[in-house]
Design a protein that fits this description.
The complex is a heterodimer of chains A (184) and B (455). Chain A is an all-alpha fold and 184 residues long. Chain A is built from 9 helices and 1 strand; from the N terminus they run H-H-H-H-E-H-H-H-H-H. Helix content of chain B is 13%, strand content 51%. The chains are: A mainly alpha (184), B mainly beta (455).
Chain lengths: 184, 455
């Protein structure tokens, strides 16, 4: 579907039909993004709602440079990051023990997993790990960009990603063991 | 990164590429309801701040209006732009002069002792000097001849008399005289301006000889309205803006202000203050700690009991605790503290003086320069080793520019001292925090309490 400048104008003028059409087109894709960044469905719903309200209120900021989907996606991701930051403020302390890094060959397990199963694994990651993992591995942002977005150093972003991977591998190991036990 | 890892990343990315679950229907309902509530035009932070600023200003002014119920609150004419001179023809060899001047001197004419009971000698009003001198003899002029071809009228009641003058330039003078007292001086509260009318009505509080007024000095014998005031203020300040990743806590300012009266109603205020500000946020810290992992029973001896013919082993153990260096990631609340020197320059306008109360509005820029800061970092116990930390608690800028708009209530405790209460709105021109991703300017509300001494 093409969203031309006339359609954007309608959105700027708060045209309800245009807003509904816009939401219908992007909602599924963006909900997927929200689910990946959120720790559970409730948080994803909140992110989604907040993100689209922000999009409709700031649609006039879209200058037509680059794709509209890219802009929408970026807005949703920014909303998710701010959501995570607010959560950080509200929760007094979050302690995450880090296990020693180990290289694991879990590739075949991941291949066999469904997206929903993989989603559960990602959602179980600590918020900081999950955010960096999503931004780097799935969204394709560099560590420098992530550092700027989250206001952390490039090295911290790298180490967060590394720990996210270790945590994922550990979970995959458990799944692998469970599968082996089931086979016996 | 090894190939295996790259492959895992690629597979995960591919799996999520087409992941498009259907969101629950209520999300759109909530979005639609929210959009209906708030039109997009009010969505931007800039517009919101302008609205807050305007509403605050209106509320402050209206509050003052309601609290003091000033029925005379109106715009004043600038007398410095025109000179109106009113003269009455000489009666029995004397004359009456009514002079309204800008910043010029006072024109007076000493009464002739012989004719004093019969003649209104001189009525003078001088603008922009501290003494507002209006001197009149007992008798009003029976006939007047005005330079500006104005009209006169006369009122008399309760032993007080006044005459009005409406000049062709649009000025009107209401000059009351007190039959019991030949001389009177109107105070600030007695000078009422209404549209193009100027009324000087009865407030015969201060007696002042015309001779004193004519020297143009701001001080006169026994009756002084000083141009300078010095004040001490303390003001808690409350943030109106909410930021995402940190919390701006209340700040406190202690300041000394000097105030100079530029004219009857306007004043200039400047000063020096110290502001103590705090921000609270969260800091993530990575550290290693020598932690207790668990324990096990260590067998230090095995004995066998052969009394039953079968050797039965007995294991003698002792508990051994196991510790290891564990890496932790911890987020804790931290507070940064700052001390700023504050340099305000305010321009103010006295709206009304009523008895011992005075109320005014003021506004102007304030510069804040950082003199001290204390960045807080999470503390580690002796068993921990610091590795790395990052924080959402952004640092403040060294220079912060504000605009302050406020209203003040002053209550005269004595002739020298007064107590003031000044609620004001503060708008920050530049971002308060360095490198903060949200560029929205900060707004705060401050309540200034202090004392003034007239110098």
């Amino acid at each position: 579907m093409e969203f031309d400048s006339q359609f954007i104008e309608r959105l700027i003028k708060n045209d309800k039909a245009a807003q509904r059409e816009f939401y219908r087109y992007f909602s599924s894709k963006m909900y997927g993004v929200c689910l990946r960044f959120a720790k559970d469905v409730d948080d994803a719903n909140d992110m989604m709602q907040e993100g689209f309200i922000r999009i409709f209120n700031h649609i006039s900021d879209f200058r037509g440079e680059g794709s509209l989907e890219g802009w929408v996606r970026r807005t949703i991701i920014n909303t998710a990051i701010n959501f995570y930051k607010r959560k950080m403020r509200k929760s007094n302390t979050v302690s995450i023990d880090v296990v020693a890094e180990r290289v694991d060959k879990s590739i075949h397990i991941i291949e066999k997993m469904s997206v929903d199963e993989l989603m559960v694994l990602i959602q179980e990651l600590p918020t900081g790990y999950r955010t960096v993992f999503n931004l780097n591995v799935i969204e394709g942002y560099t560590h420098k960009e992530i550092g700027e977005m989250l206001n952390i150093s490039e090295n911290t972003s790298k180490s967060q990603l590394s720990r996210a991977r270790v945590a994922l591998q550990k979970k995959l190991e458990k799944i692998k063991k469970r599968e082996q036990q089931n086979k016996r | 990164m090894n190939n295996n890892q790259q492959n895992i990343d690629r597979i995960i990315k591919e799996k999520f590429e087409n992941f498009s679950p259907q969101p629950p229907g209520f999300i759109w309902d909530n979005i639609e309801a929210n959009l209906n509530e708030k039109p997009a035009v009010f969505g931007t932070a800039k517009v919101r701040n302008i609205i807050i600023f305007a509403v605050s200003a209106i509320v402050i002014i209206l509050l003052g209006w309601l609290l003091l119920g000033n029925k005379y609150f109106s715009h004043k004419n600038d007398l410095t732009n025109g000179v109106v001179s009113v003269e009455s023809p000489a009666i029995s060899g004397n004359s009456t002069n009514i002079t309204a001047e800008g910043t010029n001197g006072i024109e007076t004419e000493e009464p002739n002792e012989n004719n004093k009971p019969e003649i209104a000698k001189t009525v003078s009003y001088r603008e922009n000097v501290d003494e507002k001198t209006l001197v009149s003899d007992e008798k009003r002029p029976e006939q007047s001849n005005f330079e500006n071809s104005g009209n006169t009228s006369e009122n008399s009641n309760s032993g007080k008399r006044q005459f009005n003058y409406t000049a062709s330039k649009g000025f009107e003078f209401k000059v009351p005289t007190n039959t019991n007292n030949g001389n009177f001086v109107p105070t600030l509260g007695a000078l009422l301006y209404s549209g193009k009318k100027i009324s000087i009505c009865e407030t015969p509080r201060l007696l002042m000889p015309a001779a004193n007024a004519s020297n143009g000095s701001s001080k006169s014998r026994g009756n002084t309205i000083s141009k300078w005031k010095a004040g001490v203020f303390i003001s808690p300040e409350f943030a109106l803006t909410t930021l995402d990743s940190l919390e701006v806590l209340h700040s406190y300012t202690l300041g000394v202000d000097m105030q100079y009266s530029l004219s009857k109603n306007t004043f200039l205020r400047f000063g020096l203050g110290t502001t103590y500000s705090r921000d609270r946020g969260f800091t993530a810290i990575e550290f290693k700690r020598w932690d207790y992992i668990g324990s096990y029973n260590d067998v230090y001896e095995v004995t066998f009991d052969t009394s039953s013919g079968v050797p039965v082993p007995t294991y003698h153990t002792h508990k051994v605790d196991v510790y290891d260096s564990i890496q932790h990631f911890d987020v804790s609340e931290t507070t940064n503290r700052y001390l700023y020197m504050q340099f305000p320059v305010m321009l103010g306008y006295n709206i009304e003086t009523k008895g011992r109360f005075n109320w005014y509005v003021y506004g102007g820029p304030v510069i804040n320069a950082l003199v001290y800061k204390e960045k807080s970092t999470p503390e580690l116990d002796k068993n921990s080793t610091f590795l790395n930390y990052n924080t959402d608690l952004y640092e403040r800028n060294n220079l912060i520019y504000q605009f302050r708009l406020g209203m003040g209530f002053e209550f005269d405790l004595t002739s020298k001292f007064s107590f003031t209460f000044e609620p004001d709105y503060i708008y920050y021109f530049n971002p308060v925090f360095k490198n903060y991703y949200e560029k929205q300017p900060l707004s705060t509300l401050s309540l200034r309490l202090g004392f003034f001494i007239k110098l």
